[in-house]
Amino acid sequence: MANKVDVAVIGAGPAGLAAAIAAREQGAEKVLIIERAEQLGGLLPQCIHNGFGLEYFERDMTGPEYEKAFVERAMGLGVETQLETMVIDLDGERGITAVSRKHGYMKFKPGAVVLAMGCRERSRGAVGIPGTRPAGVLTAGTCQRFVNIEGYMPGSRYVVLGSGDIGMIMARRLTLEGAKVEAVVEIMPWPGGLIRNEVQCLHDFGIPLLLEHTVSFVHGEKRVEGVSVCRVDAERRPIGGSERFIPCDCLLISAGLIPENELSRRAGVELDPVTGGPVVDESRQTSVPGVFAGGNVVQVHDLVDWVSREAELAGRSAAAFADKGRLKPAGGVKVVPGESIRYVVPHTISGREDVSLHMRVTRPGLKATVKVGGVASKRFRSVRPSEMIVIDLKGDALKEAGTGGELTVDCRMKEGD
Fold it and tell me: d(Cα 176, Cα 190) in Å, to the nearest integer?
């Protein structure tokens, strides 16, 4: 591509659209979204349920409605798009290599790059379920596409492994379509999704949630005939003698999401082993100068609204980098997860600017207090690993506290959920 690109955004889901819009609004002249699919929006078109936009637009929207709002804004601002184009390489100097049927083999170097590739579902292979390999084993997201986009019901009797949000939403969706969902099976002692989805998708429809259970075997030759389900101990190991057989013709897997960071690795971006996403500063710049990241590629968010907000920050920062040719890394203070905190994003902050810290706890608890060094604290009636905590820090408070280059975040709580 001979034309100059100020900001290249890889991915056209909610993160990519938000980042591109923010980059244009920040003043970047040519913003290009590169997307491997044939349309914009990522997975939003198949998410026909409501619950989108409550934070961002302050109204209840479906996935397609949320997508339409962002696509219209992007097109109105003159954001350019290149669909059905696969980025096959990103180097440490922001060089992009891509291929498409229409344009062939392309190489170009934008002023800045925003990683917005989103995340993917854990497959049966990643979870490691013993048994045969019959038809009828698929991820919850694949089933969602079959039902909501293709108009095809993969089966009539289901077991869902994992209580992630997509799995619980599909349990309700399939029930509304007349299927029988026998159970949602969760290996942890607590659900893996939002409370609202647990209540609205499972409890309201009488769908059993089996905590501290797992699928220990898949039965069937050509087609799934059923699964064996058993209890697990504190180490998540199957307990002998606790197995029972549940007849079904489909097993849906909703066992977590993995940030898509193959391109990040090729560029030499440092990754957080806990989140699976890039290590970023408060501007969402990665360890590679000029490469920014936002949305589920950084950390798996609960709400698409938060995906959009984080990606906007990445887009604005990318536009500033492209304009000035540099953006000083905000690496003055390292943010460290402490007691009962699994991770914190961003990983480094300047200590000068206002910043929001996003984090998850390691276990559920009641009457929790989250303390950010001696700078800030916030109380919660209850906390769960499945629900993100956000704490806003004032730059003035950071300067007054004198963090000494490191800020530890702790959560103290009572046992419970």
Answer: 25
